[in-house]
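Can't attach files on this board, so I'm pasting raw text. These are the components:
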Amino acid sequence: MGQTIYWMILWVVILAIPNSGGAKEEGKEYKFDPSEIEKKPYHIGGYGEFRPVLNVLDQNAALYKVKFYNRDEGKTTEEYNFKGLLEGSYEKDAARLFMRFNYDWNHTYEGWSGEGKLYEGTLSLKPLSSVSLDLGKKTLKWGKGYAWNPVAFIDRPKDPEEPDLALEGFWVGSGDFIKSFPGPLKTISFTPVVLPVSEKVNDDFSQVEDINVAGKLYFLLYDTDIDLIAFTGGSRTTRYGIDFSRNMTTNFEIHGEFAYIEDFQKKLVDANGNVSSKNYDAVSYLLGIRYLTQTDTTFIFEYYRNGTGYTENEIQDFYHFIDKEYDQYLLTGNDSLLKKASNVMAGTYGRPNPMTDYLYLRVSQKEPFDILYFTPAVSGILNLRDQSFSISPEALYTGITNLELRLKAMFLVGKGDTEFGEKPNDFKIEFRARYYF
Amino acid sequence: MIRLGISFAVLVLAMPVFALDGTQLLRQIDRNLNPESFEMYRKLINVEPDGRKKEFVLYSVKKGLDKVVALFLAPASEKGRSTLRLGENMWLYIPNVGKPIRITSLQSVVGGVFNNSDILQLDYAAEYDAEKLEETGSEYFLQLKAKNKTVAYDRLKMWADKNKKLPTKIECRTEADMLIKTLYFKETKDFGGGIVRPSVLETDSPLYKGYKSIMIYAQIKKRDFKDEVFTLTFMPNIDSLRK
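---
Top answer:
Structure tokens for the assembled complex are below.
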């Protein structure tokens, strides 16, 4: 633990030293080189990132038991995470090829591991400014919410603790058809999407092979962004959504989402480990605001109702099952049911925010006390059902061109049998240095 | 009494002439600064009190009274970000995040003294009414009032060169006449295509003592664009407009 903190402090000191590369102003002549605006047919860029993490474990938590039942890592674990995100594009006439590749290389208590993934790879055709066609692996990122997006039917779930991270896309064919008008209806655009699922294509979207279709109809009507969204096909049940975003005043924005999922199947594990499922029509919605004060403080506040989430009793059954099987493992050494619990968790009990009602608040202050390029923030998620919560203070510094430094901590607070109380950590601190090129 | 009546009538009839001239002058200034529909490249330089600077390169496109879009070309951390203004609506698109979010005119996506409304500047005549016009030596002096509350600065005091009909200095003020920032238009340059205008815009602010921001203009060209370019859906594709 001491070593991890030492390395974090060292990196912060080294990278936060005032950049001597930034040229001082000499005289009043400012240069603008034509090469800076020359358009090339190709582009390569991205970022490299180093992120050491210290986790303080909660050895009484149910999810700790599932993860660490057969190893003793002590009270803390350390991670050293390296990430490279590489983007490249090539354009010729109306065609453009774009690729975004992500490679993660991590050292954790389990040793070194690495994984590379193609996040996006698309061939786009833009014959007109009002028409665009895309084929390939793409993220769509539908929805107006900041921490959650119940209408993001064709996106991988994002982490509300890191909502701005790039995500891996799905293989799709899509188009954008745009039309502008004078008057209160300023824009209409339609985005149809075809998402095939087969053994080798989008098999992580669903195990049911089929051709699925979705669409988004966007309006800018009376200065309000409105989307109507629908998805249907055999791979997942039919679902409909609507979202909106509007500035009520220049510094006050309101947004919302509503999703209706037909015949949603919720997987359940009772306290004895019996797996069952419940089918019902699920309704999820979100309402949020974004407010900017005159002193450059930004507030983002959202309420999220997760219609696919677990009730208190349902999730407590799962925690009790784990506790029981952990005790059984200690007595007999049989871990088969603990492994079963671990397998069931993925995408269900183990996903971020698996229960039903949440509040999110993020407060960030731009350059307090006139400290240039420094933005402290604090964000929190409150589970309204069990009153457990997480709170994450952070400090971001971007004073060195193309270098972003962030120190972030996360405190998880909750009693036993609560969402944040049963997570494997009590506390986490991480430092992130990201260099763009 | 009759003289009073005549004097009053002359004053009343004369007032619209001043107001018309002020508005006409403002429109002329707008057209001398930029064509109604154009593309341009700019560099924004934020200079800190210790002399350090941070630079941004932008590609901007404007059409008509209220459609502007700007794309960041440099530095690498900002490349691909775009901002769109359509009437009173403003959005920011960040490639990693993948979807546009609404922003306000008083925020600044680049930091420094310039804010979003300075970067996505509309025609002055679109946002302001000319309340007063005076001639002072070789300059015009215009007092402008925002047409509504959504405009970033409630009042502008503009000094413009009489011959060139181009601004030399603009003070941006609040309703209570407090100075927010001053813009200095410098180094007139011929950009071709009949566009002769200041190529450097410097700004400072009593609210940011010691800081300065500079905007350098390059390659301003008249060009027509479809309305569909200025939409949320097109924001990820702004770079395709560049030739």
